[in-house]
């Protein structure tokens, strides 16, 4: 490179979440409806996972429909015009087309002005990956505002006869508008992966094997629950502590804890390991909603805002983890 190199754009000094929205599918499925197929009981499911019921989407509640509904609320709460959104990031593993990304259709339906739009595949960690990317896009000048969506229809990929997953997975969408801010509203991300454990949570077989089989069925998600449980409970508490350190705060400064809603016992184990003070409000959306993968953190945070457990200006620790294994955590200021 000779001379002075290339012209650069300036971004915002700081980025923050400006608005959050969510969409819960209309079908409420109590434990009683799933127990027979897996020879289980309401008591066992509640004790082992904290789940009382989950939401499953109707055929009309598509990935796109749920994502658009959550996004409209987030955009309205952010007080911006959809045309101000210059990038749409959709975290999902349940958009059933290999290509194109669902993000372009969502951006179009929302009425953005041909925003950049793409999907990311980081499973349950997807939303926090998206928030990290959006914050850097806004600060780096690549997007004035970015929309991050976590959306799943995991019921499509769930084997209702599988004892290890049938009672856990659920559907829904959450969205956040990230934009410029006078003060830092999104702390540095702590993220990573452990591909040695690639097989712990995964689609059972690839699409070519499904098509080649004599009686093709959906390639359901399978999980080694015990191993995931151990990894998440111990490793993710460390990741959470690193996110606090990188944001320059201590656990005593924290107001709200929103871990991925995987299992209530994992949430409790992380809170114990991090010595979380009792006054910190902890997201427990899984009890009513089930595990919605990339959608679980915005769904849980939105519920806390609506119920007054998270207030504007609060410091919230987000920790997302899942298949890959992939994880990401950051502290954010509640909008
Ligand atoms: C799935 C999970 C709830 C299973 O709980 P667990 O305590 O690990 O259960 P185990 O597989 O060790 O089985 C314990 C016992 O319950 C039984 N069991 C397993 N699934 C059951 C079910 N759905 N209903 C009733 N009993 C069940 C087993 O047969 C076993 O019985 P045994 O002691 O007589 O042999 C738990 O492993 C978990 O939540 N893991 C993390 C999953 C997760 O969060 N995934 C998402 C990450 S993104």
Descriptive labels:
alpha/beta; Peroxisomal Thiolase, Chain A, domain 1; 9 helices; binds coenzyme A
Secondary structure elements and pairings:
Layout: E1 14-23, E2 27-30, H1 42-49, E3 53-56, H2 63-78, E4 85-91, H3 102-110, E5 116-120, H4 126-140, E6 145-153, E7 171-181, E8 190-193, E9 201-203, H5 207-212, E10 221-223, H6 225-247, E11 256-259, H7 264-273, E12 281-282, H8 286-289, H9 296-306, E13 315-322, E14 326-333
Helix pairs in contact: 2-3, 6-7
This protein binds coenzyme A (COA).
Coenzyme A binds next to helix 1 and helix 6.
Q: What small molecules does this complex bind?
A: coenzyme A
Amount of helix: 25-40%
Strand order of the largest sheet: 1-7-6-4-5
Largest sheet: 5 strands, mixed
Overall geometry comes to: globular
CATH topology of the largest domain, which one? Peroxisomal Thiolase, Chain A, domain 1
Instruction: Report the uncertain regions.
Output: none
How far the N terminus sits from the C terminus, by CA atoms, comes to 43 Å
CATH level 4 superfamily of the largest domain? Thiolase/Chalcone synthase
Mean pLDDT: 96
| Rg | 19 Å
Name of the CATH architecture of the largest domain: 3-Layer(aba) Sandwich
What structural class should be given to the helix and strand makeup?
Answer: alpha/beta
Put simply, the count of helices is 9
Strand content: 15-25%
Order of helices and strands: EEHEHEHEHEEEEHEHEHEHHEE
Protein name: Beta-ketoacyl-[acyl-carrier-protein] synthase III
Pathway: Lipid metabolism; fatty acid biosynthesis
Active site: 124, 260, 291
EC number: 2.3.1.180
